[in-house]
Amino acid sequence: MTQLNIEVFADGADIEAMKLAYKNKEVDGFTTNPSLMAKAGVSDYNAFAKEVVKEIPDASISFEVFADDLETMEQEAEILKQYGDNVFVKIPIVNTKGESTIPLIKKLSADHVRLNVTAVYTIEQVKEITEAVTEGVPTYVSVFAGRIADTGVDPLPLMKEAVEITHSKQGVKLLWASCREVINVIQADSIGADIITCPAGVVTKVNNNLGRDIEELSVDTVKGFAKDIQSSGLSIL
């Protein structure tokens, strides 16, 4: 991690994995979302959030609202923000009807709520968020670069422009979301993004593989093949 300027956050909701990553100093922070919580089998949101903050008291943690209307989102944000000074409240840039949440983002930021604005895909959205938030109030703008790439579009030009926009206001950080592989960490770091969220598999690779001499990989790969051949019991002759 010392080779990077960018902060690496773990993306997940497995409490034991989060605690281990924190204990071993594998990452700089954590993000969660409703899909990850469902996958991890979280059954009580409030109990989960309280336990996470108790076990991880001094690293950034993002918890997302569940509601689809601004009024209820605001009520949920008021609850989530109280769990700890390290908590960022995740607000999607739009709801399921495509309605903008900018009015709520502006209001919460003015009330000094730390926000992680998520599901961002366009430069126009990045501009709107940066303009809406209060200067000096910690804010993450989470642009889903990996999902943009999944459409066949190179996200780098957009992300480079997003860096300039977000850095024009004190307190706003650009977060590269939906990381797919270690090279994304290098890309995000090289353009000046502040944070990248990675699934557990990529976090492991960042800690174990980043900076390795690729000349060693052929032998390591064949050793892996040999181990699997032995355990499989298969033979050709």
TrEMBL record:
This is Transaldolase. Its EC number is 2.2.1.2. SUPFAM superfamilies: Aldolase. Pfam families: TAL_FSA (PF00923). InterPro entries: Aldolase_TIM, TAL/FSA, Transald_staph-type, TSA/FSA_arc/bac. NCBIfam families: transald_staph. Keywords: Schiff base, Transferase. GO terms for molecular function: transaldolase activity. It is an enzyme of class 2 (transferase).
